[in-house]
Design brief:
alpha/beta, 21% strand, UspA, UspA domain-containing protein
């Protein structure tokens, strides 16, 4: 399994998106694969880079640059140290290339756009496990992506007892 695949991970630093990263690292990627963290910022955010890249998303950001502190000023993101450690480890131990891309707008639509943009072989997203009523009222990114993405999608469901 693996080798030269591009695996997207929807990332919002929630506990379930962290579980999705762990699942990908433990079960899915091998040497030669590439992980693309897909971040979607609110279209209401007003960062300088948003004006430049709002329609197409940011350029791909290598892991080394993603760790820099000015990223939060440039894109409005504050990377989670635990996520960075996981990605550093998989990059070194499995020779997996890790990059990030930032989009602005509705997460459901932008994640599906990213699948086509980045020519993803597969996508992994976390699910908060909303009940049926909340899912109808709030919508569910994972449900929408499973239905509309043009590649295979794996949903990593959070457990009620998980706090990580």
């Amino acid at each position: 399994m693996g080798g030269n695949r591009t695996v997207g991970i929807g990332m919002d630093y929630s506990p379930t998106s962290k579980q999705a990263i762990r699942w990908v690292v433990d079960n899915h990627v091998d040497g030669g694969d590439r992980i693309v963290l897909i971040h979607v910022q609110s279209s209401k955010s007003d960062h300088a880079k948003k004006k430049l890249w709002e329609d197409t998303g940011s350029p791909l950001i290598p892991l080394e640059e993603f760790r820099e502190m000015n990223l939060s000023k440039q894109y409005g993101l504050t990377p989670d140290p635990e996520v960075l450690d996981i990605l550093d480890t998989v990059s070194r131990t499995k020779q997996v290339i890790v990059v990030s891309k930032i989009y602005w707008g509705d997460p459901r639509e932008k994640i599906c756009d990213a699948v086509d943009d980045l020519k993803l072989d597969c996508l992994v997203v976390g699910s908060r496990g909303l009940g049926a009523l909340k899912r109808v009222l709030l919508g569910s990114v994972s449900n929408y992506v499973v239905t509309n993405a043009s590649c295979p999608v794996t949903v990593v469901k959070g457990s009620p007892s998980s706090k990580a």
